[in-house]
Amino acid sequence: MGSKRFTFVRHASVTVVCLCSIVIMAVLYSQLTITNKANCITVETTGNHASSWAINNHSNHSKLSSTKKILVYSTTRWLKDWVGTKWDTSDVFQSCPMTKDCILTKDKTFLHKADAVMFSWDALGERRSKRKQGQVWILFEYESPHYFRPDSSCWRNDIVNWTFTYRRDSDFTLVHGQFSQHDTGYNVSEMNQLLRSKSKTAVGFISHCKARSKRDEFVRKLRSYGVDIDIYGKCGNLTCGGGKDTKWKGVWNVTSGHRDNCFDVLDSPYKFYLSLENSLCKDYVTEKSLHLVLRHQIVPIIRDGANRSLYHPPHSYVDTKDFKSIKSLAKYIKFLSENFDEYLKFFKWRKHYSVGTVSGVLQSSLCDMCNRMHHQQRYKRLYSNLENFFTKTHDTKTNQGICKAAKDVR
């Protein structure tokens, strides 16, 4: 089974992506320009209108096979830490099974020189920027659509070629961990003493209060049905060690050997971890239920908008979507708490699966990106409507769409 792991120059046109009124003008330039007008994005392009991919399709093989420079315009602390001293070198790609001839940089002076640019939503509209011909733009976003940016009234269409997000249908997927299937040597019976010593029911780490998923209310209702719950973070009354510079490292686990005191409490004395996402969106799965939690001896209770069977080994979690009400969920939690043999069944998967971190997933995606950069014609693409891809307006009657309403707390 292996590891589970879980595209530009258009001709004489001006595309205005905005919900406000802006005059559309035809402009002839040999460049693509992004400007911010009244919080809206204007994209000015030239080239053949029938072509949505600004690749110089030359027969010169040396140009196609030369080193590709990928600029990470929107960097994150965890990505900086993971790359470490390998910026501006090809070291990150040396373990790739196919193409290794790429360089990763965060030096923004290469904005008009890089072969590809990775950026988040917030990077667009910050400043006027010229786009070189043939440059691939990659949307790099790991938050749910609810939190891309405070003002999302202007959608940036017809400018993004590839997506690098948590979504499984992205060009490159950033999943918070993975599982490998093999004989791990895990002995459930040897864990009996630790598992039997657990004296508390459930724990959760929540610092984003009043989230769109209404998880605060979910916790209150679960408590009202007799489930004992401790909450760490800003939304609870418990705290743990580790400052700002260490907590994020513990979350992403990109620093070798790093352990965070906050998550050490999961092994004992708690039986369940409340993995409650801030948004109930398609494929939105974070560290709260993947590598961060499952490397500890605890059973996650998951509440999100994803199909968990695509991410987790069988019988490794409790999914709130499987219950008709919070009351019935509470009843099941109490049943497992009082019946050790039934609770123990949620650890048998560990005999056959091991937990990987986000580092392995990130490495695999970057290798894929490097390979595609050397075969751009094969992977040419242009997203004409990112709003449809990321949001698809929620239907309140059917509760269908990329993100759904929290109906279980009504």
Tell me what you see in this structure.
Helices cover 20% and strands 19% of the residues. It has 410 residues and is α/β, with parallel strands linked by helices. A hairpin with a 2-residue loop joins strand 3 (32-37) and strand 4 (40-45). The chain has 2 domains: 68-176 and 361-391; 178-242 and 262-356, Rossmann fold.
Kindly state the mean pLDDT as a whole number?
77
Q: Roughly how much helix do the residues carry, as a percent range? A: 10-25%
Task: State the shape.
Answer: globular
Q: Indicate the CATH architecture of the largest domain.
A: 3-Layer(aba) Sandwich
Structural class: alpha/beta
Spatial order of the strands in the main sheet?
6-5-7-9-10-11
- Poorly predicted sequence stretches spanning 5 or more consecutive residues: 1-64, 150-154, 247-259
In total, how many domains does the architecture comprise? 2
- Beta-strand portion reads 15-25%
The CATH first-level class of the largest domain comes to Alpha Beta
CATH-defined superfamily of the largest domain: Glycosyl transferase family 10, C-terminal domain
Q: Per CATH, what is the topology of the largest domain?
A: Rossmann fold
Outline the biggest β-sheet. Answer: 6 strands, parallel
Please report the total strand number as a whole number: 18
Work out the radius of gyration: 23 Å
Order of helices and strands: EEEEHEHEEEEEEEHEHEHHEHEEHHEHH
Count of DSSP helices? 11
Q: N-to-C terminal Cα separation, in Å?
A: 41 Å
